[in-house]
Amino acid sequence: MPTWEIENTYNGIVCGIDEAGRGPWVGPVVAGAVVFLNKNIEPELLQNLNDSKKLSAAKREKLYDLLLSEEKKGKICCGIGMASAQEIDELNILQATFLAMSRAAEKLSIKPQFALIDGNRLPKQFLCQTACYISGDARSYSIAAASILAKVYRDRLLKELAQKYPFYGFEKNAGYGTKDHIAGIREHGLISEHRKSYKPIKNFMETGQI
Questions:
Q1: What span, in angstroms and rounded, lies between the C-alpha atoms of 199 and 180?
Q2: Which of 73, 78, 79, 137 could lock 33 by a disulfide, CB 3.0 to 4.6 Å apart?
Q3: Mean pLDDT score of the chain, rounded to an integer?
Q4: What pLDDT digit, counting tens, does each position of 5-58 carry?
Q5: Which DSSP letter does residue 10 get?
Q6: Could you report the per-residue pLDDT of 126-160, keeping only the tens digit for each?
Q7: Please, how many CA atoms are within 13 Å of residue 160, restricted to the half-sphere of its CB?
Q8: 66 and 44 Cβ atoms separated by less than 8 Å
Q9: CA torsion through residues 195, 115, 33, 111, sign
Q10: Where are the domains of the chain?
């Protein structure tokens, strides 16, 4: 479970950063950035913060709303950044992810001095000092909060996309290559939000097969 241990090793304003949506075939990659300005946080939030992948959708939604509620109280600062499918195709998914992370940090109303990034890769340029932590979303409250922020925000975007394009099951598969998604592509083709550089999508464009 996450703790303050990593944050406590830094003297200064620390933000946690994580992303959602590197693997899906459609839509943007989304990053969340979170700064805890006050550790006297709603107990339900701290007790349940964890890697977003380990939580149910319903619990993620509740924690997302708690994060925004604590932000309104001035205890948390949140930022969300995205890189579009077109930017993913132009840059590659790693660089697009770093771009989304940078945009998320820039959206914070308070400038961080340190960014704790989930994973094992760091962007070459950033607005502050960075450090990466493998499984950081299961170790750091700030990174765990960022993972929930990014995941829920992206899931909501895909549900909106599903209303516009109701043939692919985006409301259930979040853009991953599920049977429903594949069936939708075969019957209705691609949409502008598909990631054309991804191998299954590229193959479909070239051969009509997926």
A1: 18
A2: 79
A3: 96
A4: 999 999 999 999 999 999 999 999 999 999 999 889 999 999 999 888 889 999
A5: -
A6: 999 999 999 999 999 999 999 999 999 999 999 99
A7: 9
A8: yes
A9: negative
A10: 7-161
Instruction: Collect all residues with Cβ–Cβ distance below 8 Å to 43 and sequence separation of at least 6.
Output: none
The secondary structure of residue 54, as a DSSP letter, is G
Cα–Cα distance, 195 to 201 (Å, whole number): 7
Residue whose pair of structure tokens reads 């502050």 in the numeric block: 128
Beta bridge partners of 132: 117
Question: Which tokens belong to 101?
Answer: 């992370």
Residues 128, 3: Cα–Cα separation, whole Å: 23
> pTM of the entire structure?
0.95
Buried b (16+ CB within 10 A) or exposed e, 80-114: bbbbbbebbbeeebeebbbbbbbbbbeebeeebeb
Calpha distance 137→54 (Å, rounded) = 10
Which residue type, as a one-letter code, is found at position 129? Q
| Amino acid identity at 28 | P
In DSSP terms, 140 is beta-bridged to 3
CB 118, CB 18: distance < 8 Å: yes
- Overall fold of domain 7-161: Nucleotidyltransferase; domain 5 (3.30.420)
